[in-house]
Specification:
The chain is an alpha/beta fold and 291 residues long. Helix 3 links the parallel strand 3 and strand 4.
Length: 291
């Protein structure tokens, strides 16, 4: 279990559950000092808890949002099956955040689908976006809304969803949103498996099979600083086909385009594969200084 470090604030907050935008705005207005936001779809686990604890280090107050956003689910995806565990979520973050904002869909989207929304552009159509058309448009629309509602000084996001992190960083920069995005390193289970709400769908055998993702990350990092070595490690993993790979790419972390032999600097290693019908992601950042 992740231990609670000393917080940025001297007090341990009394956590309030709010359901409406009006009440959220009232509570946000009453907050003195700095505010951090942790945006989630609930089904919280220790990976989310790491985000909360980092947020507490960075700000005087923390707002956590707990909302399963229908805009980012496509036809045939698991919107109805997505776990909704608000009572357990509240227990996990009780005393760690000031506010849990858990609105209904009509509260977030009085007209659904909304007439006006945000697009992620080309970056939202590749990698995960190619497999899930419209997904990142739904993500950036709800993130833009939640950042407006929570008005934080900083918002924390995990590195596991590497494409999402890159797109949100561009959202904030391109729309001049007054918030700093703070990346937080991937939280892993003792086996090395990246923590995810979707891990709940895996059987014990599926969890074992899914370790191919973290082993591939380790192999790519071990191949650094050679950019060719990183690319070769990923190609070898896909060739072994130990899981149903969607992709295993070495990418420029800014453009999300594949790196070539001449690339030097940070390399985003981004993986996606399916185990027992569950789509899993993993990611890491390596540094290439040699061919």
């Amino acid at each position: 279990m992740i231990q609670d470090p000393p917080s940025h604030s001297a007090h341990r907050p009394i956590t309030a559950l709010v359901r409406t935008k009006d009440e959220l705005r009232q509570r946000r207005t009453a907050m003195d000092g700095t505010v951090a936001a942790v945006l989630t779809m609930g089904a919280l686990h220790d990976g989310h808890l790491a985000l909360v604890l980092r947020a507490r280090e960075l700000a005087d107050h923390v707002i956590l949002t707990d909302f399963v956003n229908p805009l980012q689910f496509g036809p045939g995806e698991d919107l109805e099956a997505y776990p909704r565990t608000l009572e357990a979520d509240l227990a996990l973050v009780d005393g760690l955040v000031d506010v849990v904002f858990a609105p209904s869909i009509p509260e977030m989207y009085p007209a659904y689908p909304p007439m006006v929304s945000v697009t992620a552009g080309h970056a939202g159509t590749i990698l995960e976006g190619a497999a899930r058309p419209g997904h990142f448009d739904g993500v950036v629309t709800v993130v833009a809304k939640l950042l407006q509602l929570t008005a934080p000084h900083v918002s924390v996001f995990g590195r596991k969803d590497a494409q999402q992190l890159a797109i949100i960083q561009r959202l904030v920069a391109d729309l001049d949103l007054p918030v700093r995005i703070e990346p937080v390193e991937i939280q892993r289970e003792p086996t090395g498996l990246a923590r995810s709400s979707r891990n709940a769908y895996l059987s014990p055998a599926g969890r074992e099979q899914a370790l191919v993702l973290s082993r591939t990350i380790a192999a790519a990092l071990a191949a650094a600083p050679s950019v060719g070595g990183i690319r070769a490690a990923l190609a070898a993993a896909v060739q072994r086909a130990e899981i149903d790979w969607d992709y295993a790419h070495a990418l420029d972390p800014t453009s999300l385009e594949p790196v070539g032999p001449e690339h030097r600097g940070e390399v985003l290693v981004a993986l996606a594969g399916t185990v027992e019908g569950t789509r899993l992601l993993d990611a890491a950042v390596a540094v290439a200084t040699a061919p």
